[in-house]
Amino acid sequence: MSKRILIAEDNLSLAKGLTELLRRRSFEVVHQANGVDALRTIASSPPDLLLLDLRLPGLNGVELLKKLRSSKRTAKLPVIIMSGAYLGDKYHQAARSLGVEHYIEKPFKAAKIMTAIESLLGDATAPQRPVSHYLQQAYQKGFSGQLLLEWPDHRRALVFVKGAPVSLRPGFAHRDFGDYLRSRNLLNDAEYEHFATTGAFRHESLVELGCMNYTDLLQAKLDYLRDELEQAFGAPPATASWQEFTPPELMQIITLNVPNLFYRGFRRFQDPAAKRILARYLNHYPVPAGDFYRHINFLDLNGNDKLLLNRMDGQTTLAACLDDAHDPAALLLSLLSLNMLNFSKEPTKPVTVDAWPLRALFNAAEVAEEVDRETPLESFDDLVDEESTEPASTTPPKPAAPAKPAPPAAPAQEDLAQSVRIMAQSLEGKNHYEVFGIKPAKFSIDLLKERYFAITRQYGPEVLMQLGGEEAGLVEGILSTVATAYDTLSDVVKKERYDELLNSDKIGLGQDGDDRFQAQVQAESGKVFIDMQEWDNAEQALKEAVAYDSNSGEVLAHLAWSIARNPRYAESQAMQGKAKQMLNKALTMERTAVGFAYKGWLLLDGGQDVMAEAEFNKALKLDARYAMARQGLRTIREKQEQQKKGLFKRMFK
Questions:
Q1: pTM
Q2: Same domain? 101 vs 77
């Protein structure tokens, strides 16, 4: 019998795309566009799963969820939240407190929503996992709460705050913290008895007794947790249950160095997974990726592991990186557990550092210069005096390398501008492979690099300096398109996802349907980001929407507005000009109220009030209640009134 899913979503186009996707996967689907109807549907016949948008008319998603959780009949109804407005960890945590395991931010891919659905409607039996698996889950999700680990004959409670362990009882090697201190002769039997009874296992009771000062107590607590959890890496697999709570938002307690805990734990106990990794990826290219720069400075690596880490640059196979005398297991397992490493079948570039100002990499290896014994040493014959009595070398001279061709002369500015316009036009509507003229079946990283650098050299900074106005904006657009395509195709994970989008056999809707679905999701997300004035996110989402569907004038208008309003481009005449051209193009494609309103505001900001008023009136002819256009006309009227008052003051002063 097929599972029944209720979609509570007021965006009809998004709901339609989801319905098509799920029905192709053999789910029974019901859709309601407001919270009241959704509640009625659930009350009459509860579904197996609810896909819930939080901004529902009638009854918002949060109130709907609270009502469901207050009823015994629906208290445990599986729910997946989809939201493009409420973004960030605090909303995720609030949802988890209401029993929601999956909180998916818009825009999202079809694969992501399907993974969440299958995890909730699949096998619910609790598997047995190594303790390191649960530590990894808690850390990556930033989990706060209690994790109960259960074995056939005993259980342990481990408490986390924002992904870091803060309390454990009983321990893996000792009964508790007091027993740990007693084994190190830091407590005697009487003091331990007081700690476990009168002190009720309160750690500060040891300071009250004068056993240690508070600074030593803090260090001892960290040492206890570290040593006990290192032992956990050698414990048998356990089942787990999670009891979540929400800590105060500003809580920043001193916790364990969790990334280094993985490294120490894997060094202490050999994990069988290491051998499988070596066997599987020996001829792959290890490359720093994902959260590499987030965690790397927390690892306290030994010298051999530092050398290995610095060899893994995405251009060298794992086999070539390894030293016969060095066991790489702890480092590889730690990097993989923390999402710091990928293995690629082809050479690939490593992840770049994020926006924060990185001062230093503590694990950068200091390597003495090595001589490549396979490369012939450079000849010093040309430094020997011609009249030297030393015998001449009998080695035949190497043939001279062919001279590099001289760079082509710079084209005239008129020809250059024409070339830019042709190039920009040729890129419109192309997928990432077509941008570089590569067929997917013939793809290689070397060919991609060759085509990428050919284009970026052709339209480098010196070209941008020669141009202005429209052509300069087109060059920026060309480089942005090419960079996006290169970034996607050169990253193994991103390329796989992109290939899925191009391959209709792998996407439930088929290529056209999936493109339409993704365009709708990205467009709606972009509009929400505009409402929240998150301009960078809006621009990114709307660019992806245009890439999926280039025929929507309304979406293009939103993209133009996100660029024009972005403070990052406030001083860039090229980007402001690009936004205006994009907006004009959007209105030629499709006359929309939002497009005319955006144009009116841009004209109003430029002091062209009369022309702005005309654009606002065009918007109101299409939609008499369009708030943005009405606000524009009110602003013009208020401005005119202020000007009149100022004139009268000057006349009668």
A1: 0.41
A2: yes
